Amino acid sequence: MSYDYSLIELRYFQVLAEELHFGRAAEKLFITQPALSKQIKRLESRLETVLFDRHNRKVELSESGRFLQEKVKVLLENWKKDVNYAQQIQQGLAGNLRIGYVGSAIQFLTQELLLKIRKGYPDISFELEEMGNSRQAQLLSEGSLDIGFMRSETEIKGLASSVVQKDHFCLVVPQNYKRLTRIQSPEDLSMLKEEDFILFDSEYSPTYFERLMQIFERAGFKPKIAHKTVHAHTIYNLVENGFGIAIVPQSLQYGFAMNIQFIPLDPFPQEASLRMVWNTSNLSEVLRRSLGLLPVQS
Protein backbone atom coordinates (compact mmCIF):
# COMPACT_ATOMS: atom_id res chain seq x y z
CA MET A 1 0.00 0.00 0.00
CA SER A 2 1.28 3.47 -0.92
CA TYR A 3 0.71 6.55 1.21
CA ASP A 4 1.73 8.78 -1.70
CA TYR A 5 -1.54 10.60 -2.21
CA SER A 6 -2.33 14.29 -2.33
CA LEU A 7 -4.77 16.56 -0.58
CA ILE A 8 -6.53 17.16 -3.88
CA GLU A 9 -7.22 13.43 -4.20
CA LEU A 10 -8.68 13.42 -0.70
CA ARG A 11 -10.79 16.42 -1.68
CA TYR A 12 -12.09 14.49 -4.71
CA PHE A 13 -12.98 11.60 -2.42
CA GLN A 14 -14.72 13.94 0.05
CA VAL A 15 -16.93 15.58 -2.58
CA LEU A 16 -17.87 12.30 -4.24
CA ALA A 17 -18.68 10.81 -0.83
CA GLU A 18 -21.05 13.74 -0.23
CA GLU A 19 -22.67 13.74 -3.68
CA LEU A 20 -22.60 9.99 -4.42
CA HIS A 21 -22.84 10.94 -8.08
CA PHE A 22 -19.84 11.27 -10.41
CA GLY A 23 -21.50 13.88 -12.61
CA ARG A 24 -22.53 16.25 -9.82
CA ALA A 25 -19.23 15.75 -7.97
CA ALA A 26 -17.20 16.49 -11.13
CA GLU A 27 -19.23 19.62 -11.77
CA LYS A 28 -18.66 20.80 -8.20
CA LEU A 29 -14.93 20.16 -8.55
CA PHE A 30 -14.69 21.82 -11.97
CA ILE A 31 -13.22 18.73 -13.65
CA THR A 32 -14.58 16.22 -16.14
CA GLN A 33 -16.35 13.07 -15.00
CA PRO A 34 -13.75 10.72 -16.59
CA ALA A 35 -10.95 12.66 -14.84
CA LEU A 36 -12.71 12.29 -11.49
CA SER A 37 -13.29 8.59 -12.03
CA LYS A 38 -9.62 8.13 -12.89
CA GLN A 39 -8.48 9.98 -9.75
CA ILE A 40 -10.77 7.93 -7.49
CA LYS A 41 -9.55 4.65 -8.99
CA ARG A 42 -5.97 5.83 -8.54
CA LEU A 43 -6.62 6.63 -4.88
CA GLU A 44 -8.28 3.26 -4.30
CA SER A 45 -5.32 1.53 -5.92
CA ARG A 46 -2.84 3.34 -3.70
CA LEU A 47 -4.86 2.60 -0.58
CA GLU A 48 -5.54 -0.94 -1.71
CA THR A 49 -9.08 -0.32 -0.55
CA VAL A 50 -12.41 -0.06 -2.37
CA LEU A 51 -13.94 3.24 -1.32
CA PHE A 52 -17.11 3.16 -3.43
CA ASP A 53 -19.46 0.40 -4.53
CA ARG A 54 -20.62 1.06 -8.08
CA HIS A 55 -23.90 -0.47 -9.30
CA ASN A 56 -24.76 0.65 -12.81
CA ARG A 57 -25.41 4.37 -12.32
CA LYS A 58 -25.64 4.15 -8.54
CA VAL A 59 -22.66 4.98 -6.33
CA GLU A 60 -22.49 4.11 -2.63
CA LEU A 61 -19.77 4.33 -0.04
CA SER A 62 -18.22 1.02 0.88
CA GLU A 63 -17.73 0.15 4.53
CA SER A 64 -14.13 1.34 4.27
CA GLY A 65 -15.29 4.50 2.49
CA ARG A 66 -17.77 5.31 5.27
CA PHE A 67 -14.99 4.89 7.84
CA LEU A 68 -12.63 7.20 5.95
CA GLN A 69 -15.25 9.82 5.07
CA GLU A 70 -15.30 11.45 8.51
CA LYS A 71 -11.52 11.03 8.94
CA VAL A 72 -10.84 12.79 5.66
CA LYS A 73 -13.32 15.54 6.51
CA VAL A 74 -11.53 16.26 9.80
CA LEU A 75 -8.11 16.05 8.13
CA LEU A 76 -9.04 18.57 5.42
CA GLU A 77 -10.71 20.92 7.93
CA ASN A 78 -7.62 20.83 10.15
CA TRP A 79 -5.38 21.42 7.15
CA LYS A 80 -7.45 24.46 6.20
CA LYS A 81 -7.18 25.82 9.75
CA ASP A 82 -3.43 25.16 9.83
CA VAL A 83 -2.89 26.93 6.50
CA ASN A 84 -4.92 29.89 7.71
CA TYR A 85 -2.88 30.03 10.92
CA ALA A 86 0.36 29.79 8.94
CA GLN A 87 -0.79 32.75 6.84
CA GLN A 88 -1.53 34.70 10.02
CA ILE A 89 1.98 33.91 11.29
CA GLN A 90 3.41 35.18 8.00
CA GLN A 91 1.46 38.42 8.49
CA GLY A 92 2.41 38.75 12.15
CA LEU A 93 -1.18 38.22 13.29
CA ALA A 94 -0.48 34.97 15.13
CA GLY A 95 2.44 33.12 16.63
CA ASN A 96 4.51 33.13 19.76
CA LEU A 97 6.59 35.92 21.30
CA ARG A 98 9.40 34.98 23.69
CA ILE A 99 9.98 37.80 26.18
CA GLY A 100 12.70 38.26 28.77
CA TYR A 101 12.55 41.01 31.37
CA VAL A 102 14.10 42.31 34.56
CA GLY A 103 11.75 42.18 37.53
CA SER A 104 11.34 45.95 37.78
CA ALA A 105 9.92 46.04 34.24
CA ILE A 106 6.86 43.87 34.84
CA GLN A 107 4.38 46.70 35.46
CA PHE A 108 5.37 48.51 32.28
CA LEU A 109 5.50 45.27 30.31
CA THR A 110 2.00 44.25 31.37
CA GLN A 111 0.35 47.60 30.72
CA GLU A 112 2.22 48.73 27.61
CA LEU A 113 2.69 45.49 25.69
CA LEU A 114 0.90 42.37 26.94
CA LEU A 115 -2.55 43.95 27.26
CA LYS A 116 -2.15 45.61 23.86
CA ILE A 117 -1.18 42.29 22.27
CA ARG A 118 -4.16 40.55 23.86
CA LYS A 119 -6.52 43.25 22.59
CA GLY A 120 -5.08 43.79 19.11
CA TYR A 121 -3.67 40.36 18.30
CA PRO A 122 -5.49 37.69 20.33
CA ASP A 123 -3.82 34.87 18.36
CA ILE A 124 -0.34 35.93 19.48
CA SER A 125 0.77 34.03 22.56
CA PHE A 126 3.77 34.93 24.67
CA GLU A 127 6.28 33.24 26.93
CA LEU A 128 7.59 35.34 29.82
CA GLU A 129 10.76 34.71 31.77
CA GLU A 130 12.35 37.00 34.33
CA MET A 131 16.12 37.23 33.92
CA GLY A 132 19.02 39.63 34.18
CA ASN A 133 20.53 41.80 31.47
CA SER A 134 23.42 39.49 30.60
CA ARG A 135 21.18 36.43 30.24
CA GLN A 136 18.77 38.36 28.03
CA ALA A 137 21.61 39.56 25.80
CA GLN A 138 22.91 36.01 25.45
CA LEU A 139 19.53 34.53 24.50
CA LEU A 140 18.75 37.37 22.11
CA SER A 141 22.07 36.85 20.36
CA GLU A 142 21.41 33.11 20.13
CA GLY A 143 17.91 33.64 18.74
CA SER A 144 16.27 31.95 21.73
CA LEU A 145 14.53 35.15 22.81
CA ASP A 146 12.54 37.59 20.67
CA ILE A 147 12.53 40.70 22.80
CA GLY A 148 14.08 41.76 26.08
CA PHE A 149 13.46 44.51 28.62
CA MET A 150 16.57 45.62 30.44
CA ARG A 151 17.55 48.32 32.89
CA SER A 152 20.45 49.85 31.02
CA GLU A 153 21.67 53.35 30.28
CA THR A 154 23.74 52.28 27.30
CA GLU A 155 23.24 50.44 24.01
CA ILE A 156 23.65 46.67 24.15
CA LYS A 157 26.54 45.53 21.96
CA GLY A 158 25.42 43.64 18.86
CA LEU A 159 21.71 44.26 19.48
CA ALA A 160 19.18 46.92 18.59
CA SER A 161 17.46 48.79 21.39
CA SER A 162 15.22 51.71 22.27
CA VAL A 163 14.46 53.36 25.58
CA VAL A 164 10.74 52.86 26.26
CA GLN A 165 10.55 54.35 29.76
CA LYS A 166 12.50 56.77 31.90
CA ASP A 167 11.74 56.61 35.57
CA HIS A 168 12.79 58.60 38.62
CA PHE A 169 13.34 56.80 41.89
CA CYS A 170 11.44 56.69 45.15
CA LEU A 171 12.11 55.56 48.69
CA VAL A 172 10.14 52.60 50.06
CA VAL A 173 9.43 52.56 53.80
CA PRO A 174 6.90 50.84 56.11
CA GLN A 175 3.41 52.36 56.20
CA ASN A 176 3.85 53.65 59.77
CA TYR A 177 7.36 55.06 59.16
CA LYS A 178 7.71 58.33 61.10
CA ARG A 179 11.35 59.24 60.67
CA LEU A 180 10.90 60.83 57.24
CA THR A 181 7.76 61.59 55.23
CA ARG A 182 9.17 63.89 52.53
CA ILE A 183 12.50 64.35 50.81
CA GLN A 184 13.12 67.93 49.75
CA SER A 185 16.91 67.86 49.46
CA PRO A 186 19.75 65.32 49.25
CA GLU A 187 20.50 66.10 52.89
CA ASP A 188 17.11 64.69 53.88
CA LEU A 189 18.12 61.27 52.56
CA SER A 190 21.41 61.46 54.47
CA MET A 191 19.35 61.30 57.67
CA LEU A 192 18.81 57.61 56.82
CA LYS A 193 22.47 56.64 56.54
CA GLU A 194 22.19 54.29 59.53
CA GLU A 195 19.25 52.41 58.05
CA ASP A 196 19.54 49.00 56.41
CA PHE A 197 18.83 49.14 52.69
CA ILE A 198 17.27 46.44 50.52
CA LEU A 199 18.27 46.83 46.88
CA PHE A 200 18.03 45.08 43.55
CA ASP A 201 20.99 42.81 42.93
CA SER A 202 23.72 44.55 40.91
CA GLU A 203 24.20 41.46 38.74
CA TYR A 204 20.80 42.03 37.16
CA SER A 205 21.84 45.42 35.79
CA PRO A 206 25.18 47.02 36.64
CA THR A 207 24.20 50.39 35.14
CA TYR A 208 20.93 50.43 37.11
CA PHE A 209 22.86 49.69 40.31
CA GLU A 210 25.30 52.45 39.40
CA ARG A 211 22.40 54.94 39.27
CA LEU A 212 21.38 53.92 42.77
CA MET A 213 24.91 54.42 44.05
CA GLN A 214 24.95 57.90 42.50
CA ILE A 215 21.91 58.78 44.61
CA PHE A 216 23.67 57.72 47.78
CA GLU A 217 26.82 59.51 46.72
CA ARG A 218 24.86 62.72 46.19
CA ALA A 219 23.34 62.28 49.66
CA GLY A 220 26.85 61.93 51.08
CA PHE A 221 26.93 58.41 52.40
CA LYS A 222 27.52 54.79 51.45
CA PRO A 223 24.47 52.61 52.12
CA LYS A 224 24.40 49.65 54.46
CA ILE A 225 23.06 46.98 52.13
CA ALA A 226 21.38 44.36 54.29
CA HIS A 227 19.66 42.36 51.54
CA LYS A 228 19.86 42.01 47.75
CA THR A 229 17.11 40.52 45.63
CA VAL A 230 15.75 40.75 42.11
CA HIS A 231 12.05 40.64 43.00
CA ALA A 232 10.07 43.77 43.85
CA HIS A 233 7.55 41.79 45.90
CA THR A 234 10.36 40.35 48.01
CA ILE A 235 11.77 43.84 48.59
CA TYR A 236 8.37 45.15 49.66
CA ASN A 237 7.74 42.20 51.94
CA LEU A 238 11.06 42.79 53.71
CA VAL A 239 10.33 46.52 54.04
CA GLU A 240 6.83 45.81 55.33
CA ASN A 241 8.24 43.55 58.03
CA GLY A 242 10.90 45.98 59.20
CA PHE A 243 14.03 44.43 57.68
CA GLY A 244 15.08 47.68 56.04
CA ILE A 245 14.06 50.34 53.51
CA ALA A 246 14.55 50.42 49.76
CA ILE A 247 14.88 52.56 46.65
CA VAL A 248 13.04 51.52 43.49
CA PRO A 249 11.81 53.12 40.23
CA GLN A 250 8.63 55.11 40.79
CA SER A 251 6.64 52.98 38.35
CA LEU A 252 6.99 50.05 40.74
CA GLN A 253 4.76 51.66 43.35
CA TYR A 254 1.66 50.51 41.48
CA GLY A 255 0.01 47.12 41.67
CA PHE A 256 1.05 46.13 45.20
CA ALA A 257 -1.42 46.18 48.10
CA MET A 258 1.03 46.12 51.00
CA ASN A 259 1.62 48.11 54.19
CA ILE A 260 4.33 50.28 52.71
CA GLN A 261 4.60 53.84 51.41
CA PHE A 262 6.55 55.44 48.62
CA ILE A 263 8.38 58.74 49.00
CA PRO A 264 9.51 60.40 45.74
CA LEU A 265 13.20 61.28 45.50
CA ASP A 266 12.45 64.50 43.63
CA PRO A 267 15.72 66.29 44.46
CA PHE A 268 17.70 63.58 42.68
CA PRO A 269 18.04 63.79 38.88
CA GLN A 270 18.97 60.12 38.43
CA GLU A 271 16.67 58.10 36.20
CA ALA A 272 16.27 54.40 35.52
CA SER A 273 15.96 53.73 31.81
CA LEU A 274 14.00 50.71 30.67
CA ARG A 275 15.39 49.56 27.36
CA MET A 276 13.61 47.35 24.83
CA VAL A 277 16.16 45.13 23.10
CA TRP A 278 15.93 42.85 20.07
CA ASN A 279 18.08 41.15 17.45
CA THR A 280 17.75 42.70 13.99
CA SER A 281 18.44 39.31 12.37
CA ASN A 282 15.15 38.09 13.84
CA LEU A 283 12.74 38.46 10.91
CA SER A 284 9.60 37.49 12.84
CA GLU A 285 6.54 39.49 11.81
CA VAL A 286 5.14 38.96 15.30
CA LEU A 287 8.19 40.74 16.68
CA ARG A 288 7.82 43.57 14.17
CA ARG A 289 4.19 44.15 15.13
CA SER A 290 5.03 43.99 18.84
CA LEU A 291 7.78 46.58 18.49
CA GLY A 292 5.28 48.90 16.87
CA LEU A 293 3.00 48.76 19.91
CA LEU A 294 5.50 50.32 22.30
CA PRO A 295 6.15 54.02 22.88
CA VAL A 296 9.76 55.10 22.44
CA GLN A 297 11.35 57.72 24.69
CA SER A 298 13.63 60.33 23.14
Automatic annotation (TrEMBL):
Stored InterPro entries: LysR_HTH_N, LysR_subst-bd, WH-like_DNA-bd_sf, WH_DNA-bd_sf
Cellular component per GO, a single term: protein-DNA complex
Keyword hit for Heme: no
Leader sequence segment: none
Domain HTH lysR-type: start-end pairs: 5-62
One matching Pfam family: LysR_substrate
Domain of life: Bacteria
Protein's UniProt keywords contain Transcription regulation: yes
GO MF annotation, one: DNA binding
Keywords: DNA-binding, Transcription, Transcription regulation
Family membership noted in the UniProt record: Belongs to the LysR transcriptional regulatory family.
Name assigned to this protein: HTH lysR-type domain-containing protein
Organism per entry: Aureicoccus marinus
